[in-house]
TrEMBL record:
It comes from Sporolactobacillus terrae. This is Transposase. The lineage of its organism: Bacteria, Bacillati, Bacillota, Bacilli, Bacillales.
Length: 289
């Protein structure tokens, strides 16, 4: 079972600035992110279902103008299923965050489930005598977004989220190729490359036939770009998949996952995260140490 909350939280923590730049450029331009700090994701009571939920990402930052007088709390919530009362839940989170920190809060919701819907982004409280409150939040509906708009963005956050955008089955290889071309040019460190590649492949994992097609398209790229894509640490499962072409695809993929896991262990990423991203068991990871 995919842990959607953990994957999105990890992506947003590692690429928070890039996420804002790619999807909310006006907000990004107005912020002084050198003063950004992540706050503890609090458990909030779910007054609808009688449970407790953990907010996904809460960050404190400052505005470039009048920064001494205005500190902004940005709350980002990723939602992977449709929930009828989601706006009410967002209002509950908003209220709890404001009561705790007593600072302006900018709420953002990311709807990541498959299919196209029209999610509301407001919660209204009214009486026969007065509309007492109208709460609104920014929303992103990934299933409505056209991946073509982000294929040349050179932004790791938007490149990763292309895997959840609106594309046809016949475009799967093209989406993966667009992702690889961006990643090869960004030159991220190995740990961040492995993490973002794991996110992408969780939601768009090519079949063997699609990988064959992808490799043909990579070899058709201009020489300089082709070499960059092939050398990218996670391209085609790194050396393992290329080895697998000659010695057996299954063995090659296993070897590639072990190589990826070793790099992540060297970066001191926790075992449970590595296991989730590589598919290796905790016992296998311990043996690799």
């Amino acid at each position: 079972m995919i842990d959607h909350d953990r994957l999105f939280k990890e992506l947003l923590h590692n690429f928070f600035d890039e996420f804002l730049e790619g999807f909310f450029p006006e907000v990004f331009a107005a912020l002084d992110l050198s003063h950004k700090k992540f706050l503890s994701e609090e458990f909030f009571p779910d007054l609808i279902e009688g449970d407790k939920k953990r907010a996904d990402v809460i960050a404190e930052t400052q505005l470039k103008k009048n920064r001494k007088h205005c500190v902004l709390i940005i709350h980002i919530e990723a939602q992977n299923t449709h929930q009828e009362h989601f706006p009410q839940r967002m209002f509950t989170y908003f209220s709890m965050i404001y009561l705790k920190f007593r600072k302006p809060v900018l709420p953002i919701a990311i709807f990541s489930y498959d299919g196209v819907s029209d999610e509301p982004n407001e919660f209204i409280i009214k009486t026969p005598f007065l509309n007492t409150m109208r709460f609104r939040f920014f929303k992103m509906e990934l299933g409505k977004m056209n991946w073509h708009a982000f294929m040349h963005s050179n932004n790791p956050a938007s490149a990763a989220l292309m895997s959840k955008m609106n594309y046809k089955k016949k475009e799967r290889v093209a989406v993966r190729l667009a992702f690889l071309r961006q990643m090869a040019g960004l030159q991220l460190d190995e740990a961040r490359s492995s993490m973002i590649n794991g996110f992408f492949e969780t939601y768009l994992n090519l079949s063997e036939n699609e990988v064959d097609q992808l490799m043909k398209e990579v070899h058709a790229l201009p020489k300089d770009e082709r070499e960059q894509v092939i050398k990218w640490p996670n391209s085609f499962y790194d050396r393992g998949l290329k080895k697998g072409k000659a010695e057996g695809k299954t063995e090659g993929k296993i070897e590639a996952r072990k190589e990826m896991a070793l790099r992540m262990l060297q970066k001191k990423i926790d075992l449970h995260t590595i296991a989730e991203l590589t598919g290796l068991s905790i016992e296998e990871l311990i043996k690799l140490k």
